[in-house]
Amino acid sequence: MPSVIETHDLRKNYGSHQAVRGLNLQVPSGSICAFLGQNGAGKSSTLRMLFGMARPTSGSGQIFGLRIDNEQDSLRIRQRAAFVAEDKRLYDYMTVAQIIRFTRSFFPNWRSDLEARLLDQFELPLDRRIRKLSKGMRTKLALLLGFARGSELLILDEPTEGLDPVAIEEVLQIIVSLVSDGATIFFSSHQIAEVEQIADHVLMIHRGQLVLDAPMDQVKDQYRHVQAVFPDLVSEQDFRLPGVERVSADGRIVTLVASCNVDAIISHARRMHADSIDVLPISLKEIFLEKVRAGK
Amino acid sequence: MLLLPIQQRLPKFFWISPDSLCYISSTVFRKPNPSSGVPIYVQLKEQIRHAIETGALAPGDQLPGIRTLAESLVINPNTVIRVYRELEQEGVLEIRHGLGAFIAPRRRNTAKAEKVRNAQDLVSELVATLRSHGLDEGEIRRLVEAELSETALPGKEALQRR
């Protein structure tokens, strides 16, 4: 599948702090691609660079094949893609109805059907001024303005932050609906459960570098937690095999996390006369914690 | 090309006409558990297979369109595409051009069920015969189990050839 977003060795320094350290990422067209990482891992810096809100220190990036650091290109990107930033900044003095009317006027593909559906679902008060909206209402309004633009790409920075479970499910449903229409979604989140529910591709960033880049099904199919008990003492060296992400040996017990190649790893354990071998699936949350620990 | 509706991004046989009636409500399906180690596409395939086994879905029944099912379960539409495509390859579903996905005719789905029913007849005949030869229940069970564990041994054929 072709990529909508691509970066090559993208870097961003703030003074001596390296926020993004050589990022090579690709977001497949038509996918729901999740962007995971701890606070300060470089997610927002990356998203801001993609959207022309911050200049890369070095490296390059393209959206729809247009350069993110070229002013004219960046303008064309913004016509075709919607960005809902983490701070959900809006014009405080406008009412809900006013900002919708104002935003709508810029976008010829505006989805009035979606606007009506979301106004109803989110129960947004049309006459209220934005400054008087609660945090959750503000998030819902920012999402409505992003979703209804009819963009072919949506970049969402923690779209469901601060929303209640019902609203989260509604937001995920809209995302599913937009992807059914052919849109691509690139979103960052700390909610691993929602990522597992709708993402088909996962990118994980840690300390400004990509530590996981894989289709969700592949992660679920191939990542395994393996524990084997042997008749004699074993060492970690015995398990430096392809696919082994992390291994720890404690006496006769070996515990390892494999990202692929599990069958070969099990055969290897059998050849070493393992008394018992347990293989368990591993949740995305555990993988996330593994990656963060490994990076320390 | 990015704004094409999902139906047009699929091979032509996946096109589903928007106004075609959906006979099967999406309520046949449960929301998959995203946090289990089992991928959602595997869970959904199992659900469809199970619905066929229990008769909740019968041959000729139409499955919901990709968008409808994805929206009602709040899962990725690409996952639904993958499930329909794989089940078609396995002969469980039929994709009719421009109409949608349907449960394949009985002969393909229930071949297994028929085999099991036939086998049941054979087994009951065998058990009746053995009883008439004076064997009790425990003896028959042990014989069957021993036979099964022997066939499960690898290299049994090689042993017999010797």
Brief summary:
Chain A has ten helices and 15 strands. Chain A is α/β, with parallel strands linked by helices and about 300 residues long. In chain A, the strands form three sheets. Chain A has a six-stranded mixed β-sheet, with helices on both faces.
What are the key terms here?
heterodimer; A: alpha/beta; Alpha-Beta Plaits; six-stranded mixed beta sheet; five-stranded antiparallel beta sheet; elongated; B: 162 residues; mainly alpha; Arc Repressor Mutant, subunit A; two-stranded antiparallel ribbon; disordered N terminus
What does this structure look like?
The complex is a heterodimer of chains A (about 300) and B (about 160). Chain A is α/β, with parallel strands linked by helices and about 300 residues long. In chain A, about 35% of the residues lie in helices and about 30% in strands. Chain A has helices at about 45-50, 70-80, 95-105, 110-120, 135-145, 165-180, 190-200, 215-220, 260-270, 285-295; strands at about 5-15, 15-25, 25-30, 30-35, 60-65, 65, 80-85, 155, 185-190, 200-205, 210-215, 225-230, 245-250, 255-260, 275-280. Chain A is elongated. Chain B has about 160 residues and is mostly helical. Chain B contains seven helices and two strands. In chain B, about 25% of the residues are buried. In chain B, α2 crosses α3. Chain B has two domains: about 5-105, Winged helix-like DNA-binding domain superfamily/Winged helix DNA-binding domain (Arc Repressor Mutant, subunit A, Orthogonal Bundle), CATH 1.10.10; about 110-160.
